[in-house]
Automatic annotation (TrEMBL):
Molecular functions per Gene Ontology: pyridoxal phosphate binding; transaminase activity
Family the UniProt entry places it in: Belongs to the DegT/DnrJ/EryC1 family.
Alphabetized Pfam families for the sequence: DegT_DnrJ_EryC1
Record's protein name: DegT/DnrJ/EryC1/StrS family aminotransferase
GO biological process, one term: polysaccharide biosynthetic process
Entry keyword set: Aminotransferase, Pyridoxal phosphate, Transferase
Upper classification of the organism: Bacteria, Pseudomonadati, Bacteroidota, Flavobacteriia, Flavobacteriales
InterPro entries for the chain: DegT/StrS_aminotransferase (IPR000653), PyrdxlP-dep_Trfase (IPR015424), PyrdxlP-dep_Trfase_major (IPR015421), PyrdxlP-dep_Trfase_small (IPR015422)
Active-site residues, as the UniProt record annotates them: 192
Species this chain originates from: Marnyiella aurantia
Residues that bear N6-(pyridoxal phosphate)lysine: 192
Keyword Transport belongs to the record: no
């Protein structure tokens, strides 16, 4: 059996090697390394895939979030509400821009923003909501957009983990994750569902005005060459990454399907385990399983992780510490307001999840988890 990895980028690469190698060599020969035609082509191909008016490529997913916030012309101390249970980048950029991060609890089943807590957190200084489509599934955009509209707030979807997922509104309209809010952001970090071979990111919007602004901000606040109208940043997707992404974008739906198939295998194997909760698939969103995250109810999560490690099965805790308790982002809080986040920190365990999992590997992983769980019951 092939060695089991959390993410197997190498096997995935070898399947498309000659195609990708040729494309990369072409970029090297063209010497159009920055803002070349490959970037432009990727941009418009992603626009059609997502059915969104504008894609603005940038250097990574963290920049994408920062630049999206910069485009809104916020003032120091303006409040941005986001989830306490997410990757740090979401909160980091809020602090970096001297805005006030207001962290709220998540829903226990979907790991995404609790919309009742969202309503309660809104104040006259609230300007933006950042829902995070965590682990591959959309937050409840129907309710979030309604709350945003009622309170005149902007919505930036952090879509670093759910590219290709689809949200269906009550009337039946379906939209791709990242295209429903004021803006959406994503990351092309190698291990993301659409990953390049270095760093990359993008911002999505249907607003012409915001798209213009964003294109200036990523390029030193420059709308006309050497005229700087505002303080911007330098944040670019390079041509080598763009050409890799052009090869991988047509494969994204298939990649997400492969992840779903692995998730189905896990779900079935764990269906009768009273102390294992498998990921809940919300009826409003497809799930692209950036992570397959179990909740372990018998208090033995760390022991299970150790047991699997001894069998050379990697399993990761995403995320072990609440952002509100991190030194850098500390927020005074009442534990009663963060019951779900605090439970999840102790219960979650993500199993290997990628596009190249083989049945033999899945069987070995699930048998090993079941072996541990059964031993605990006796
Ligand atoms: C990966 C990730 C980011 C940051 O993306 P980078 O490209 O690594 O900067 C932001 N938010 C979430 C939820 C992520 O998973």
């Amino acid at each position: 059996m092939k060695k089991i990895q959390m993410v197997d980028l190498q096997t995935q690469y070898f399947k498309i090697k000659s195609d990708v190698d040729n494309a990369v060599l072409n970029v090297l020969e063209s010497a159009a390394f920055i803002n070349g035609p490959e970037v432009k082509s990727f941009q418009s191909e992603l626009e059609s895939y997502l059915d969104v008016k504008h894609v603005i490529p940038c250097a990574n997913g963290t920049d994408a979030l920062q630049i999206a916030l910069m485009a809104l012309g916020l003032e120091e101390g303006d409040e941005v509400i986001t989830a306490d249970f997410t990757f740090a980048a979401t909160v980091e950029v809020i602090h970096l821009l001297k805005l006030k991060a207001v962290l709220i609890d998540v829903d226990y089943d979907t790991f995404t923003m609790d919309t009742e807590k969202l309503k309660a957190a809104i104040t006259p200084r609230t300007k933006v909501i950042i829902p995070v489509h965590l682990f591959g599934q959309c937050a409840n955009m129907q309710d979030i957009l309604k709350i945003a509209e009622a309170n005149k707030l902007e919505v930036i979807e952090d879509n670093a983990q759910a590219i290709g997922a689809e949200f269906t509104f009550a009337g039946g309209r379906a939209h791709k994750a990242g295209t429903m809010g004021t803006m959406g952001t994503t990351s092309f970090f190698p291990s993301k569902n659409l990953g390049c071979y270095g760093d990359g990111g993008a911002i999505f919007t249907n607003s012409d005005e915001l798209a213009h602004k964003l294109r200036g901000i990523v390029n030193h606040g420059m709308y006309e060459r050497y005229y700087h109208d505002e303080v911007g940043v330098n944040s670019r997707l390079d041509s080598v990454q763009a050409t890799v992404l052009r090869k991988k974008l047509p494969l994204l739906d298939g990649y997400n399907e492969a992840r779903r198939k692995a998730a189905d295998y896990y779900d079935e194997a764990f269906a009768d385990q009273p102390d294992l909760l498998t990921p809940v698939r919300a009826d409003y969103s497809t799930h692209v399983f950036h992570q397959y995250t179990l909740r372990i109810l018998n208090g033995k999560r760390n022991e299970l992780q150790k047991f699997l490690a001894e069998k050379e099965i990697p399993a990761m805790i995403y995320y072990p510490v609440a952002l509100r308790k991190q030194k850098a982002y500390f927020q005074d809080s009442d534990p009663a307001d963060f019951k779900n986040t605090d439970l999840l920190l102790d219960q979650v365990l993500s199993l290997p999840m990628h596009t190249e999992l083989e049945e033999e590997q899945l069987k070995y992983i699930t048998d090993s988890v079941l072996e541990f769980m059964t031993a605990q019951q006796h």
